[in-house]
Amino acid sequence: MLKKEILAMILAGGQGTRLKVLTKKNAKPAVPFGGKYRIIDFTLSNCSNSGIDTIGVLTQYQPHRLNAHIGIGSPWDLDRNNGGVTILQPHMKNDGGNWYMGTADAIYQNMSFIDRYNPENILVLSGDHIYKMDYSKMLKFHKEKAADVTIAVIDVPIEEASRFGIMNTEPDNKVYEFEEKPEKPKSTKASMGVYIFNWKILRKYLVEDSKDKESSHDFGKNIIPKMLNSEFSLYAYPFEGYWKDVGTIQSLWEANMDLLNPENQLNIHDESWKIYTANPTKPPQYIGNTAKINNSLVVEGCSVFGTVNNSVLFPGVYVGKNTIIEDSVIMCNTKIGDNVIIRKSVVAKRVTIRRNSVIGNSEEITLIGDDEEIKSNSIIK
């Protein structure tokens, strides 16, 4: 039997309803981000850079684009015979089959995949967060503490702590209490949804949880509180760095804008920790003699003849003459005509915006969905 020290399972089946039209035909982890990436690229790149070579990606809602993007894992050096990346979707078994009913149930339904590699530890991750993290350092912490469970935590402002699962810990980071979205949080150590479990122990709890008809089959609501009550050794691993759950249009826009800050902690230009992706075959960008570009990401395949300020342009975007784009995210293959004004907007893929139109109002974020056509002289605020 194969033996792995650690195996990663990425939960990537979320519908992401708060991203509205961006997830109408797309799983949340497959939503475009940062000019050339998809959200899941950050988790996959973290695994690759951390030396984790065996990964299961659990998909469910609208999986086709996500599956096509991951393929056999070549961009992340995960196209391997022994390990690599495997897409795991709900499937029929001898006793029938169900959709994944929660985060814990998703892992439970794929125990046979995990058992194939006989791992000592299992790393459970979310596929819809933007961050860079060396999981090998977390594994080292996990082993040094002789922990049964290690939960990555990030310090959040006390006024935001009630939005998260909060860890209350001893001075050595041992967890003595876990509170799911408490009204009056006792600490600011928020769970990042990044867990390392001893697989033998977790496997036992997953089997027991599957038989509990009252359970939500969720790690935060069920598995972790039960393990804590059983006096297993749980530790909080403190993470310092950029981390963002891009689960809303506001947070997705903010994360894109963060990339334009030269002091941002994420730093996608870091050669020592590259973010890998499947690159489109596009010609070089073309910047016309009437173009003005300031503090923006403009990637391959773009043609710009207007003004672009503090914005992110994805491959294949066309910007017409006398057009002004400010504080906006313009996704793949969108065509913007002449004399258009776009401010503080997220414009999805393959949108056509005809001449003399005005999109956005510089206050609230304006969202335009895939394949929409905005007629000439339109005003959308």
From TrEMBL:
<keyword id="KW-0321">Glycogen metabolism</keyword>
<feature type="binding site">
    <location>
        <position position="191"/>
    </location>
    <ligand>
        <name>alpha-D-glucose 1-phosphate</name>
    </ligand>
</feature>
<protein>
    <recommendedName>
        <fullName>Glucose-1-phosphate adenylyltransferase</fullName>
        <ecNumber>2.7.7.27</ecNumber>
    </recommendedName>
</protein>
<keyword id="KW-0547">Nucleotide-binding</keyword>
<comment type="function">
    <text>Involved in the biosynthesis of ADP-glucose, a building block required for the elongation reactions to produce glycogen. Catalyzes the reaction between ATP and alpha-D-glucose 1-phosphate (G1P) to produce pyrophosphate and ADP-Glc.</text>
</comment>
<keyword id="KW-0808">Transferase</keyword>
<dbReference type="InterPro" id="IPR056818">
    <property type="entry name" value="GlmU/GlgC-like_hexapep"/>
</dbReference>
<dbReference type="Pfam" id="PF24894">
    <property type="entry name" value="Hexapep_GlmU"/>
</dbReference>
<comment type="similarity">
    <text>Belongs to the bacterial/plant glucose-1-phosphate adenylyltransferase family.</text>
</comment>
<dbReference type="InterPro" id="IPR011831">
    <property type="entry name" value="ADP-Glc_PPase"/>
</dbReference>
<dbReference type="Pfam" id="PF00483">
    <property type="entry name" value="NTP_transferase"/>
</dbReference>
<feature type="binding site">
    <location>
        <position position="100"/>
    </location>
    <ligand>
        <name>alpha-D-glucose 1-phosphate</name>
    </ligand>
</feature>
<keyword id="KW-0548">Nucleotidyltransferase</keyword>
<feature type="site" description="Could play a key role in the communication between the regulatory and the substrate sites">
    <location>
        <position position="60"/>
    </location>
</feature>
<dbReference type="InterPro" id="IPR005835">
    <property type="entry name" value="NTP_transferase_dom"/>
</dbReference>
<dbReference type="GO" id="GO:0008878">
    <property type="term" value="F:glucose-1-phosphate adenylyltransferase activity"/>
</dbReference>
<dbReference type="InterPro" id="IPR023049">
    <property type="entry name" value="GlgC_bac"/>
</dbReference>
<keyword id="KW-0119">Carbohydrate metabolism</keyword>
<keyword id="KW-0320">Glycogen biosynthesis</keyword>
<dbReference type="InterPro" id="IPR029044">
    <property type="entry name" value="Nucleotide-diphossugar_trans"/>
</dbReference>
<keyword id="KW-0067">ATP-binding</keyword>
<feature type="domain" description="Nucleotidyl transferase">
    <location>
        <begin position="8"/>
        <end position="260"/>
    </location>
</feature>
<dbReference type="InterPro" id="IPR005836">
    <property type="entry name" value="ADP_Glu_pyroP_CS"/>
</dbReference>
<feature type="binding site">
    <location>
        <position position="165"/>
    </location>
    <ligand>
        <name>alpha-D-glucose 1-phosphate</name>
    </ligand>
</feature>
<feature type="site" description="Could play a key role in the communication between the regulatory and the substrate sites">
    <location>
        <position position="99"/>
    </location>
</feature>
<comment type="subunit">
    <text>Homotetramer.</text>
</comment>
<feature type="binding site">
    <location>
        <begin position="180"/>
        <end position="181"/>
    </location>
    <ligand>
        <name>alpha-D-glucose 1-phosphate</name>
    </ligand>
</feature>
<feature type="domain" description="Glucose-1-phosphate adenylyltransferase/Bifunctional protein GlmU-like C-terminal hexapeptide">
    <location>
        <begin position="289"/>
        <end position="363"/>
    </location>
</feature>
<dbReference type="InterPro" id="IPR011004">
    <property type="entry name" value="Trimer_LpxA-like_sf"/>
</dbReference>
<comment type="pathway">
    <text>Glycan biosynthesis; glycogen biosynthesis.</text>
</comment>
